[in-house]
Amino acid sequence: MSVTTSTERPDVDRGAGRKPRPNRARSDRMTIYLLLLPSLLPIVALSVFPLVRGMYLGFTDARAGRNVDVNFTGLANYRELLSDELFWNSFKIGLIWAVGVTVLQFVLALGLALLLNQQIRFRGLARVLAVVPWAMPPVVVGILWKLVYHPDAGLLNEFFYQIGAEGLRTNWLGDFSTALPAVIIVGVWAGMPQTTVVLLAGLQGVPRELHEAAAVDGATTWQRFRRITLPSLAPVIVAITSLDFIWNFNSFGLVYVLTAGGPGGKTMLPMLFAYEEAFRYGNYGYAAALGNVMVVIIVALLAVYLRRRLKEAN
Amino acid sequence: MFQYLALLAYLVFLAFPLVWLLSTSFKPPRELVKLHPTLIPDNPTFNNFVQAFTEQELGRAAWNSLQVSLASAVVTVLIALPASYALARFKSKLGTVALGWVLLSQLFPFVLLIIPIFLVLRQVGLANSHAGLILIYVVWALPFALWMLQGFVRNIPRELEEAAAVDGASRLQTLRRVVFPLLAPGLVATALFSFISAWNEFFFALVLIKTPELATLPVALARFVGIEGTARLGPLAAGSLLATIPSLIFFAFMQRRLSSGSMAGAVKG
Questions:
Q1: Which residue among B6, B108, B240 places its CB closest to the CB of A111?
Q2: Is A307 contained in some domain?
Q3: pLDDT, chain A, mean
Q4: How far apart are CA B206 and CA B208, in angstroms?
Q5: Residues of A with Cβ-Cβ distance to B140 under 8 angstroms
Q6: Which residues of A240-270 are buried (b: 16+ CB within 10 A; e: fewer)?
Q7: How far apart are the C-alpha atoms of B66 and B220, rounded to whole Å?
Q8: For residues A121 and A101, what is the distance between their CA atoms, to the nearest angstrom?
Q9: In angstroms, what CA-CA distances link A303 with A238, A263, B107?
Q10: Taking a C-beta distance cutoff of 8 angstroms, is the pair A42, B79 a contact?
Q11: Pair A182, A149: CB distance under 8 Å
């Protein structure tokens, strides 16, 4: 390890033509650390460190109300998870939810982005309106849809009554068969704007000349979409769908407000299950173990998915 | 033609719940329990808005949220400012690592973070307090704030600072006279972002705050849903609308950057 010397490359890229003096680099490095410290300290203390500790807690029998000096129990939590029906249920629901929302959201958002990328009337207005759900606090989105799905005073049931489809009226969030589809629709509604905006930005990066040339050569709209738009958009698509999937898999607030996991666990997402385990029953170690499993699943799914998508794109 | 039909379908899907929220918030109690509710209130009233804020829970919760979010925004900007200057103007490994954390921090389930954070805050006596919540919100907003602000610093031509140095200004003077004034819009944007992420946040507040008097607006609204009773839907809808106003202002402010996509990864649902 060499200490700073006058010949060492200064790690400061200031204006050319100025010769670095021996102590300049060192004092600059001190300045950098001093400037970064107020930000890095809290990040390490309240996010890096807790993350590591949280992962460790997953291998312990930590419980609420007990001393924090917990016992290391190795894989005991994971063995319990494997035989826990409630865990498998939440895992299944979480997958259906995350895949359902991500796919629907992507298809609709892509359609909308293609639409908004064209020269059509009301485009400006539609673009502004399109981000409104994004601007709403997730809890408010939940409340809003609770009002729509309300069995008595709700808009949806009244709509079915008005069009004469009385038979379709139901307690959307309270019914075993409709609860999960109902919350998935809300997830799509809430998540679509962000996906649309990202895809729209991606579309604007697709070279116009390619399209024009292809059109001259007689390519149909569909062919141009398949051969030009989709391939150029592929990196953006991979990025946004995988992020959407992770966000959805980890989501909490929206469904907590809508159903709190009910009825009968039909909408019990993994995060809701973990929240209940940790803060209702005080099983910190168990909940942390579940968090660890989710991290592993997310990383594994992402690896598989990304590899496949990237291969397709090439 | 098909395009306009698709656009119309989308706008209906989008607007349909929003209009219902708006309509519910103006309905007097009698219309809320009507067998067949109407889209447009027969006797619109502002009472729900008044009620939402005079009723102890929501009024106090809004005040709590305002305090917590303001404090988070101020602290975030204050500590992000020097760091983002360092990130933008000096090359350093540490900076790359810090920026990489932005992406990484999006991937982890909160439940892994919340339990240890909860334990730490309890040990130092900050669980169930606004101070503890502010701390978390600062840390939670910091990665993106750093990322955003260093972008703004990069946009200030380095030559301006060098020119000031040549004219004999000290580093501090350069910062104060040259950098800060040009950075003002960036600081406002960063502060707004931090404010909104704190204002909208639900999970940490739900877990950390146990005293009802200390609850923030999202927690109070969620609790309000729980106690329900159809007659309370009006104030609930009104409170929800009011809770959305700060975010709407933020999005209106950020509209340009949002549509360019540079901000698109920032605000997650």
A1: B6
A2: no
A3: 83
A4: 6
A5: 47
A6: bbbbbbbbbbbbbbbbbbbbbbbeebbbbbb
A7: 13
A8: 29
A9: 12, 34, 13
A10: yes
A11: yes
H-helix segments, chain A: 22-43, 49-57, 76-82, 85-116, 123-130, 132-135, 138-149, 155-162, 179-203, 208-216, 221-224, 230-249, 253-258, 270-279, 284-313
Helices A49-57 and A284-313: crossing angle in degrees, nearest 10, is 110
Question: Does B132 or A6 have the greater pLDDT score?
Answer: B132
The mean pLDDT of B168-179, rounded to a whole number, is 82
At A284, list the tokens: 């910190």
Mean confidence (pLDDT) of chain B: 83
- Closest-CA residue to A73 (of A50, A85, A56): A56
User: Residue A112 is part of which domain span?
Assistant: 95-203+232-279
Whether the CB of B173 is below 8 Å from some CB of chain A: the reply is no
**pLDDT one-digit tens code per residue, A69-85:** 678 888 999 999 999 99
- Residue of chain B nearest A18, judged by CA positions: B162
- Determine, yes or no, domain membership for A47: no
CA–CA distance, A127 with B259 (Å, rounded to integer): 8
Interface of A with B in 252-291 (CB under 8 A): 252-254, 256-257, 270-271, 274-275, 278-279, 284, 287-288, 290-291
Inter-chain contact B251–A130, Cβ cutoff 8 Å? Answer: no
A111: amino acid identity, one letter? G
CA of A230 vs chain B CAs: smallest distance (Å) = 18
Residue contact B109–A270, C-beta within 8 A? yes
Residue A176 — φ and ψ, nearest 5°? -55, -40
Question: Is position A117 within any domain?
Answer: yes
Which one of B113, B200, B250 has the shortest CB-CB distance to A47? B113
Residue B218, token pair as written in the block: 């999202």
Residues in chain A within 8 Å Cβ distance of B87:
36
Average pLDDT for A223-233: 87
Whether B10 and chain A come into contact, CB under 8 Å, resolves to: yes
Q: How far is CA A72 from the centre of its chain?
A: 32
Place of tokens 């009968």: A264
Phi-psi region of A121 (alpha: psi -120 to 50; beta: other; left: phi over 0): beta
List, as ranges, residues 243-262 from B with C-beta within 8 Å of A: 243-244, 247-248, 250-251, 255, 258-262
Please give the torsion angle defined by the CA atoms of residues B238, B240, B245 and B248, in that order, rounded to the nearest 10 degrees: -130
**DSSP characters over A58-96:** TTB---TTS-S-PPB-TTHHHHHHHT-HHHHHHHHHHHH
- State pTM to two decimals: 0.84
Q: Does residue B5 belong to the interface with chain A, where contact is any CB pair within 8 Å? A: no
Considering its fold, how many domains does chain A have in total? 1
* Residue of A18, A34, A36 to mutate, testing the B interface (most B Cβ within 10 Å of its Cβ): A36
Q: Does A179 map to a domain?
A: yes
Q: What is the CATH number of the domain that holds A195?
A: 1.10.3720.10
Q: Is B15 on the interface with A (CB under 8 A)?
A: yes
